[in-house]
Specification:
heterodimer, A: 247 residues, alpha/beta, Rossmann fold, 8 helices, B: FAD/NAD(P)-binding domain, six-stranded mixed beta sheet
Chain lengths: 247, 408
Amino acid sequence: MQRHQSTVDDAEVAKFEAMAAEWWDPNGKFKPLHMLNPCRLDYITRQIAAEFGRDLAADAPFDGLRILDIGCGGGLLSEPMARLGASVVGADAAEGNLPVARIHAAQSGLEIDYRHSTAEALAEAGEQFDVVLNMEVVEHVADPLAFLSACHSLLTPGGLHLCSTINRNPKSYAVAILGAEVVMRWLPRGTHEWSKFITPDELYELLKNAGLRPVDKKGFVFNPVLWSWSISDRDLSVNYVTASLRD
Amino acid sequence: MSFDSDIVIVGGGLNGPALALALAQTGRSVTIIDSQSRPVLEGAGFDGRSYALALASKRLLDAIGVWQAVADQSEAMLDIKVSDGRAGEGAGPFFLHFDHREIEEGPMGFMVEDRFLRRALLDAMDAEQNITQMFETRVVAQEVSPTGVSVTLADGRVLNAALLIGADGRSSGTAKRAGIGRTGWGYGQTALVACVQHEHPHMGIAHQFFMPPGPLAILPLPGNRSSIVWSETDARAQEIQALDDAAYLDVLRPRFGDFLGEIGLEGKRFTYPLNLTLANAFIGTRLALIGDAAHGMHPIAGQGLNAGLRDVGALAEVISDAAQRGEDFASPQVLARYQQWRRFDTAALAVATDGFNKLFSNDNPILRAGRGLGMGLVNAFPRLRRGFIREAAGLTGDLPKLLKGQRL
């Protein structure tokens, strides 16, 4: 019986290992996220370092910080945060992602607390964090204000909330839906619903209504010649990110 | 996998120690392995070898704390004069003159003898606690997995690391063991390298004479000495190398000319067959190649070490940036950034150097006329000339921070 059990587990583990390899393959299914990741991480690490007075060149600069990664997927943001010394909780509403993320973290020698949960459920349980990472999630939720209010209550006073999403205008439709889903097939059809995209002004309003104080916004811009992403002060026309604080 | 050090570098020549220092200074632990013993690497006296360091390379050495130790033994290259000629006929009527005063950055480069540079790099490694040096040790096997790399030494010891660097030269065992093939071709030419003493001062001027058998470079060393790099056909080079010093000088004199007075030899004479060998990839799983292991180049324009130090600057910056972002610095996506940064640059330089040599190592009268015309044109247009000077000084392209003299 025990033997049978372990065979089943092995098969499950092998399946999740294959899925983890797929999540982390820079040229695989999640290629767009891998391409965007260094740019997102530059923004995230610099904002956290500035807010909490940390030196990124130091060893384990985020030591002592508790960080929540909402919609953690395979752990593309959770792992870097853990590697920088933070204590990380990765939450995902899609249950299948969690064993994948756990296996990859173990392979990477990182300790990360991955949970099948949502921002709302964690807030209800009274969890508190210094930083909440809310990257490419808000455009997928049913009630953005309720969701951002939960993010607010998850933060300790002085805590930092980083939220990225996609702007809503003709260009973002062309780039994020026609370009990424239909032409390049970087993302599965139906990944995004254009009507759920949020303009920076709307997001600032939502953040304020959720009790957060917006302090920064920047664009993530794809350069098709260099084939890479960079951070822009001015161009927030498609992908953009905001920083806000709980006072 | 638990690591003995973050990074293992195979090859303790020049690029390996330079990279070890750059990485150690950004907090990485590094083990460097070389099959030779330290006394052999340090050398005893002057053996005739020296390097034409581009200004950008000097800045990198400055940024990693090595330049100070060789500054006093280096010679600034203030001018470069390029001319076309035939042995016994002297320089042709057209010549190019690159003067450092035309660019604001300072001298185009510096001549440094091998013995001083090697010693300075080894001394700097001694003072760096993040570096473990293992000499007289050979790597016999390497095994990579998605999470780490294991290197087996000849005595059976096994070292685990996150990343393996091949800095082990143009016949890199590290590349071979990783199954990375090479593309290359020879030129049928061999470079004769020696140090020449001369009667008159060189005034910091480097000369490049293009002659039918191949180019002769005369590069200023401290004192009344110059380093020569002299290319001949393979067979002819072997004949010349077999001569005694007096006969060697008899062959050299009509090529060298008498503008520096009487000449004599100092130290050993070397020959290097000129060929180009490019690795088919600069990276593998948890592996990166630098220097000649990535691109063994024709030393015609002194670009071999300079290209290697660009690899050092680029790889150290890519790794440091990734680590500061919390990325796994040895992951495929991070290493791909290094390859992308260096590969185009390297291939372009290799092809340019190759074309340059083919164009000038030729007695075809039409090509000779074309060369004269080309040189006249470059001289007539200052902007074009300044472009060449910046290229020679290594100041063009997307420069890694270390090559701008900035620390990581």
